[in-house]
Amino acid sequence: MKRTLLSIGLLAAGFAASAQIADTVKVYRPDSVIVINSEAHQGITILGSENNPNFRYNSEIDISKDANMNISSMENRMDFSVSVPFLDKMNKKESESSSKEQTPRAGSQLELGGTALIGFLYPINEPSNLDFSPWKNSEVGFPSILKMSFYNAGGGLTFSISGGYNIKRFKSKSGIRYMGENGDLVLGSLPENATKTKSMITIGSFTLSPLISVKDKKSGTRITAGPMINFNRSYNTTSKYHLDGKKHKEHDGKVNVEPVTVDFFMGVSIENFPDFYVKFAPGNILKTDALPKFSTWSIGLCLDLDW
User: What is the pLDDT along the chain (307 residues), one digit of tens a residue?
Assistant: First the structure.
């Protein structure tokens, strides 16, 4: 209750003083705020800000009944405006909106979590006997589990390098059974009377992604592009089906994959619209001489993760 009354009092004091102060100071996400209150004075000290850990701001307010409202302040950087920092914590939406107005300085940032990719795989020029099902082939990726970003003043241009993990699943569409024999992909068939048949090749990849991101300040649109280097590993081929009222799941060995492949990635972020991505893998991911090479397109959604 005391904290609420103090916040309201400080807010009222700020509005009363705003008529006398031409320049204001906005401080977003301070590291700490110290308030010293006495019968006649209030002192506020702000340490650190969102983009400057060395920032320091002091103000003294005369709150005696007979005194006019006077504020004396001192800060260690220019071009500031004044706001009550408590409101940033009390109103998250207002804080996020205000943060967009602040121009970031050039610097770097280490992040954990990043983005999740969920999409479809669409092979092109693949052998017809592979019988891939275009809209059942899927991809789930976490390309920026650990990400280091370097950005310019204003935040319009960012270079990042990140590490993550990606899983691709290629599924058959009509009774074909994928099997791995000594690393080679062999095509078989599922039981004749089986229902709800599904056979898949699963490939996991550790990824390393050096990407460049450009943001248009007026529209807020951001485009991110660059290569994703995949260090691939194969899982067992898997077949699932229903037969005689029972569910069956069988593993049929691994298929050799190319140890390193490269995908070309582009992600688009538009305000008030879901983020999406497109990837193109020009090289063949399956390592076999028995099958022609094929390329793969993928498209899907980008989901932000806040860990």
Answer: 444 444 445 444 444 444 444 456 777 778 777 777 777 777 888 877 777 777 778 887 776 655 555 555 444 544 334 444 444 444 444 444 444 445 556 788 888 877 899 999 988 877 777 778 777 889 999 999 999 989 887 668 899 999 999 999 988 877 788 888 878 888 888 888 888 888 888 999 999 999 999 988 888 899 999 999 999 988 888 888 888 888 988 888 888 889 999 999 999 999 889 999 999 999 888 886 656 678 899 999 999 875 4
In the chain, residues under CATH classification 2.40.160 are: 107-304
Q: Summarize the chain as % helix, strand, coil (round to 5).
A: 10, 55, 35
Question: What is the full DSSP assignment across 20-33?
Answer: T-SS-----S-SEE
The listed CATH number (1.10.4030, 2.40.160, 3.30.70, 1.10.287) that belongs to domain 107-304: 2.40.160
Name the residue with tokens 């209150």: 37
- pTM over 0.90? The answer is no
